[in-house]
Amino acid sequence: MPNQKAKARLNVREARLADIPGIVDLAARAYKDFVPYSTGEIRGQINNFPRGCFVAVLDDKIVGYCASMRLSERIALGHHTWREITGGGYGARHDPTGDWLYGYEMVVDSKARGTRIGRRLYEERRKLAEELELSGIAFGGRIPRYRRNRKKVSGPQDYLDKVVSGEIHDPVIRFQLANGFEPIGILKAYLREDSASMGHAVHMVWRNPYVNRDEPKKFRLPRGVESVRIATCQLQARAVKDFDEFIDNIRYFTEVASDYEADFVLFPELFTLMLLSPEEKELSAKEAIEKLSEYTPRIREALTDMAMRYNINIIGGSHPTRTADGDIQNVAFVCLRDGAVHEQEKIHPTPNERYWWNIKGGDSIDTIPTDCGPIGVLICYDSEFPELARRLVDEGARIIFVPFCTDSRQGYLRVRYCAQARAIENQCFVVLSGNVGNLPNVHNMDIQYAQSCILTPCDFPFARDGIAAEATENVETLTISDVNLADLSWARAEGTVRNLADRRFDLYDIKWDTQHSHPPDKPRAEPIGTGKPGGG
After folding, report:
1. 131 catalytic, yes or no?
2. pTM above the 0.85 mark?
3. Is 346 a catalytic residue?
4. What confidence score (pLDDT) does residue 423 get?
5. Alpha-carbon distance 194 to 79, whole Å?
6. Which region among 95-104, 431-440, 472-481, 506-515 has the lowest average model confidence (pLDDT)?
7. Which listed residue (269, 345, 384, 470) is catalytic?
8. Percent helix, strand and coil across the chain, each rounded to 5?
9. Which is catalytic among the residues 53, 66, 233, 380?
10. CA-to-CA distance for 477 and 452, rounded, in angstroms?
11. How far apart are the first and last CA of the chain?
């Protein structure tokens, strides 16, 4: 009988998005005294530089993880804190033209340390630095025995000197020295949460012996092509006799977008409101919400079927949906062409949505993985809060979709101007889709104003006015444009301005509260005007 190849028990490989739950669990077990990683932070680390993140898998369980990014020598070898250099933990400061590999996470399961997981992960980093012909590797290393020995030394530098000379034993520093790293100084206040190290870290470097240090390499980012075709549907509100007729209208635009080989098609916020038109009488806000929420399973199923049938990723505008906790939320269904379905709730309901429809805000916002890379969705009013777009881009989003519903030009321009600002601030593409026309017997769609568009940063690789394409205002149409994601990478690294890279992480960053609870309901003053749910 021929010998069968035995399955390897231990595998060290690049991290994948599917590994995130295992990585979060590993870090929580290993760092019991630290604030745990969120899934968004790990998602950002992997999305921002997939080649720099590795996992060690032993018997199908993640027992080791390390994260790295490329940085310039000035940043990698200069003084910094952990939050500053990692962009708040997301790896958002990755610079594809950087000549140093910076390691900012290394965690190993204590139960697997006899298998040299740490050494294997260090070796993966070293191989990557050699393959990319980088100058070396740098990181801030913990000194967890410093606090217990602080009375024996005059400070962290004296502690380091005594460890190097052998007067004090520190297994972490000794391990790093044994792996070819050399200390170049102390990073004070590197990680304030690290009480055992009293916040300090040793600044460690490994210099690549295969590059000429007298001739530093200058990396340039090629102006490549990573084309994505986007369609945005400016949808006419129309009376329909039933659900099937409504879906036939949506299917028509989806099929046309598919015929043009679009990768994405975006529909407007609350595009399902026309399902109220068959009602014999105009429904009150409460009645309308209840009626619309009944359609949720059918909307989800129909959009999923279309995405697969027409081989296109559908961002299904938004639809009032009753969630598991009984609240009504304004939810976008993102139905991908591989059959996966994601949901993104609106974080900030407008005053009208809160007052008339009792719509509650969502709890989280994260990127959505697609076959064209991670994307984000900001529903209408959410686009007017810069923190949300910044979080999505920190997690790796390069396209942000903004379905909106506005009744006036003022409301539309609030969304439009803010979306253009998000494109510039975050050096990303922003896609808008709105409703037009009006519907008798549906109080919330009496008038609509929209000019759907595909917006870009304002720099040389992009359209002069920052508009890749836009629809004629208040006309039903499908607007289609190709965008080059590689242009974003180039602009972020070598553009005229570099908004992402030039953020002052030493002064500010965004912290997302993962342990939040809903604030108590406050008395809601009646908004000015009629009860329209949208309004930008």
Report:
1. no
2. yes
3. yes
4. 98
5. 18
6. 506-515
7. 269
8. 35, 20, 45
9. 380
10. 9
11. 71
